[in-house]
Amino acid sequence: SNGVNLMEFSDEILLHILSYVPCTDLVLNVRRTCRKLATLCLDKSLTHTVLLQKDYKVNKDKVKQLMRDIGKEIYQLNMAGCYWLPSSTIDHVTRCKNLVKLNLSGCHITSLRLSKMLSTLQHLRSLAIDVNPGFDASQLSSECKATLSRVSELKQTLYTPSYGVVPCCTSLEKLLLYFEILDRSREGFMLSGQLMVGESNVPHYQNLRVFYARLAPGYVNQEVVRLYLAVLSDRTPENLHAFLISAPGSFAETGATKNLLDSMARNVRLDALQLPKAWINGSGLLQHLKFNNPFYFSFSRCTLSGGHLIQRVINGGKDLKSLTSLNLSGCVHCLAPESLFRKAEDDIDSSILESLVVSCCNLRHLNLSAAHHHSSESIGNHLCQLLSRLKHLLSLALPVCSITDVAANVEKPPTASNLVPQTFGKKVRIGIQTYPRNLADQANQKVESSVFWALMGSLRFLETLEIIGSSFSSAMPRNEPAIWNSLPPCVRAQSVGDSEVAAISQLTYLQSLTLAQLPNILTGSGLISIGLQCQHLRTLSLANLGMMGKVVYMSALMDMLKHCKCLRDLRLEQPYFSAGAQFFQALSHCSSLQRLCIVSRSGTLQSDAVMSFMANCLEVIMCHMFMGESLTVCKNLQQSIVRSFQADRPALNVVIFPLLHEDLTEVIRDVPMRHLDEITLFKSRVAEEPPNLWW
């Protein structure tokens, strides 16, 4: 009787509460409960921006009703990744006459539908679309092209060689290009990167401020992006302040790209930079480029030495407080004075890291993964001790070998567990050290004195953490068959195990955690600590922990999952993983779980347990399992899940397939890009792109 009535709160408080409710629920359900909520749910602060990109329960009818009720009030609409909606759904967007920003990445849309829709959106200034095979720019009406001429921000994902709508966008200030073109068609024919006659040399870049291109593996993607860059090399926009190209593997520099870079060095001052490694390695480019107030640098996989990094980028210790995001992933010599005679496993020069930390004191995102960053025995100069000064960090990626205590490695002889070969050979029987399951007992152990424990204690507001073995490679690469064997972990990483994982539990606000190739995991007890303490954890990715011949942490993982009430994405990659009844029963405690991916060579699954799990966890819309089961078992289970749950879960995406099957790459190409990019494929995501690149 003394309870608080929600309706007695002020309108301001109620509006703040309602802002956490999906717009479809507000408009179609909540506003029908009473007059006060009917008015508040249509407040401009709630209808101005509509986000449907991860509203997996939305369907065509809900979108139709939503657009009919509030279409004229919507100024920003994000439908990115709504792959399950039929293309006819796009027709209802025409009701949103006042749209300024529209994101349709991942949605099915034809040239004719795009033309019809854009013809009615005269106020549009920001657009994101996919360009699929069959796209024909000649089908775009004059009214559509008039709308595109006013668009200043364009994000375009290309699945076929084409300029898309770029030639129509004559006022472009921001251009984001994602190249996802495969080298071969489904029929096995080699594709060409040449564009249609008449399409070349027509992009309008004169007002461009931001140019971003991300390439998937493949030579066709490289051919097409060169055509986009050809116009830039003729005349570099004088207002260009962000130039970013993310290209895997080798992407050779040509005469045209060299002219472009020379022109940039003469005419522009940059705030964000990322280039293919071949364009930076061995060149004096960084010495000539000018920077204004840089906020993002990526030198991923470059052979840039620490000496060059300090001299040419930081200018010998120049104040770089504006820099908020730095990606040095795979930059193996970036913390050493020179790279000519240095081995990748040699100790780092702590003075270089210290200069970096002092100059870039406002870093929020830092990626040092995929390299051997070994600290020396000098007191106070350990990598973890220096990084603890970066109090503003929100995301951090480190190699496993960088977090080990140097003294512990020097003083402690190798244990039996350290000497176990990290291969798929005959199982070796060893003595297993017992670790306490009780959190209080763990706190009494000596791990509190380690440098990594201290680092975790100093980064209280860290939201994303990746600890990845420097030689780790996923068994499931992008466009190739599964990898049979993996490289052994770094010798310095051999002591990293349960106590280091327990140290992560200090991160109260942790939302995303990736652990890969931690060889000394014996029981996984640290995972339980994380489950208990990190109550905001939404994304968890575990790969190759402990011995490779046995999943030693299964019991601890199941205990951990019982506490992960906010977990939405779970990715597990471990040989011989047994996805049985006990595992799925524990996983059923994760009531918020939406996406599950398991990659396991020689792994097994229990079909009945999977079906029971899917029935209990109503939010799950993605189930990807690449195991050691037969093709028949996989197909039967996949069909059963789709048949039983597709009707109630429109976004349901199920792929169950033998990991080592020769047709795996063909199956992967049909996975929606949202799932493939965010969870199914393993990669480091810290500082992968500049912050707030797209909304």
Give the SSE map.
Elements: H1 11-18, H2 23-28, H3 35-40, H4 44-47, E1 49-51, H5 60-70, E2 76-78, E3 101-103, H6 111-118, E4 126-131, H7 142-150, E5 153-158, E6 174-179, E7 210-215, H8 219-234, E8 242-246, H9 255-267, E9 269-274, H10 277-280, H11 285-288, E10 290-298, H12 306-313, E11 325-327, H13 350-359, E12 365-367, H14 383-387, E13 395-399, H15 406-411, H16 439-443, H17 451-458, E14 464-468, H18 498-503, E15 512-516, H19 525-533, E16 539-543, H20 554-561, E17 569-573, E18 578-579, H21 581-587, E19 595-599, E20 604-605, H22 607-616, E21 622-627, H23 631-645, E22 653-658, H24 664-668, H25 673-680
Helix pairs in contact: 6-7, 8-9, 19-20, 20-21, 21-22, 22-23
Can you give me a brief rundown of this structure?
With 695 residues, this protein is of the alpha/beta class. It is built from 25 helices and 22 strands. The chain has a domain at 398-403 and 451-679: Ribonuclease Inhibitor (Leucine-rich repeat, LRR (right-handed beta-alpha superhelix), Alpha-Beta Horseshoe), CATH 3.80.10.10.
What does this protein look like?
Residues 3-50 form the F-box domain. This is F-box/LRR-repeat protein 18. Pfam families: F-box-like, LRR_FBXL18. InterPro entries: F-box-like_dom_sf (IPR036047), F-box_dom (IPR001810), FBXL18_F-box (IPR047948), FBXL18_LRR (IPR045627), LRR_dom_sf (IPR032675). This protein is α/β, with parallel strands linked by helices. It has 25 helices and 22 strands. It has a 20-stranded parallel beta sheet, sandwiched between helices. It has a two-stranded parallel ribbon with strand order 18-20. Strand 14, helix 18 and strand 15 form a beta-alpha-beta unit. The longest helix has 16 residues, at 219-234. The radius of gyration is 26 Å and the shape is globular. It starts with 10 loop residues before the first helix and ends in a 15-residue tail after the last helix. The model is unreliable at 410-437 and 439-444 (pLDDT under 50).
